[in-house]
Amino acid sequence: MGSKNKLKRFRENETFSNVYQPTRDELVNAAFQLKGNWNSKVFKNNYPLVLELGCGKGEYTIELAKRYPNKNFIGIDIKGARFWRGAKTAIEEGIPNAAFLRTQIELIDHAFGQNEVDEIWITFPDPQIKYKRTKHRMTNATFLERYKSILKPEGVVHLKTDSEFMHGYTLGLLHGAGHEVQYANHNVYKQEGSPAEVTEIQTYYEGQYLEKNKAITYIRFKIK
Ligand SMILES: C[S@@+](CC[C@H](N)C(=O)[O-])C[C@H]1O[C@@H](n2cnc3c(N)ncnc32)[C@H](O)[C@@H]1O
């Protein structure tokens, strides 16, 4: 995408009522008013709150929001020009239970309060295979601690990825640390048993992986 187009999207994001872009300072200095208050201040109801981390264009956020009008969805990504797509769709189609937050996932526990979140979807995260990139891997022990701090005790995490490495790494880590793996499938379109929402919604990146005949994997787990 050209830089002119990106700028246009950034400007449009500023005008969207469903886009939230706190500064890093606001988040780390605990000045972010929505922390702990997303349902009361943004959605104005008490429905379960579901996050999509690294949402890209926000396919899961939008499609799940349409399927589950009694849940609230927030797509989170650092790249505003990407989630612009989802935010615009939500506005055009009048989807009231979808919003978008621009932040680094590293700051997630500054954007949400303890026990505020019911479910987390992680969709096609960068696997960060190199050893020195481990700290950026979105299912490492530090990230799991962050997720645990914002999830309700019964809260679950969904990981969908094309990366065999990410799938195996996450399963190994979950088993090793005694977390609860509720379901795992290493080829969701070939091996039966996946929940409908795993096989009926495809993300932008997923479409590209499917064209290359890559297996898509899925894990649902609870952090102990
Ligand atoms: C491979 S893309 C997948 C996007 C989308 N989920 C999909 O499947 O089409 C990974 C996304 O995660 C975002 N991302 C990566 N690391 C991040 C971080 N630390 N904080 C926020 N977003 C991040 C990137 O901007 C990118 O949009």
UniProtKB/TrEMBL annotation:
CDD domains: AdoMet_MTases. InterPro entries: SAM-dependent_MTases_sf (IPR029063), tRNA_(Gua-N-7)_MeTrfase_Trmb (IPR003358), tRNA_methyltr_TrmB_bact (IPR055361). Its EC number is 2.1.1.33. This is tRNA (guanine-N(7)-)-methyltransferase. The lineage of its organism: Bacteria, Pseudomonadati, Bacteroidota, Flavobacteriia, Flavobacteriales. It catalyses: guanosine(46) in tRNA + S-adenosyl-L-methionine = N(7)-methylguanosine(46) in tRNA + S-adenosyl-L-homocysteine. Catalyzes the formation of N(7)-methylguanine at position 46 (m7G46) in tRNA. HAMAP family: tRNA_methyltr_TrmB. Transmembrane segments: none annotated. Belongs to the class I-like SAM-binding methyltransferase superfamily. TrmB family. PANTHER family: 3-DEOXY-D-MANNO-OCTULOSONIC-ACID TRANSFERASE/TRNA GUANINE-N 7 - -METHYLTRANSFERASE (PTHR23417), PENTACOTRIPEPTIDE-REPEAT REGION OF PRORP DOMAIN-CONTAINING PROTEIN (PTHR23417:SF14). S-adenosyl-L-methionine binds at residues 52, 77, 126. GO terms for molecular function: tRNA (guanine(46)-N7)-methyltransferase activity. Keywords: Methyltransferase, S-adenosyl-L-methionine, Transferase, tRNA processing. Pathway: tRNA modification; N(7)-methylguanine-tRNA biosynthesis. It comes from the Bacteria. The keyword Methyltransferase applies. The gene is trmB. Substrate binds at residues 130, 162, 203-206. GO terms for cellular component: tRNA methyltransferase complex.
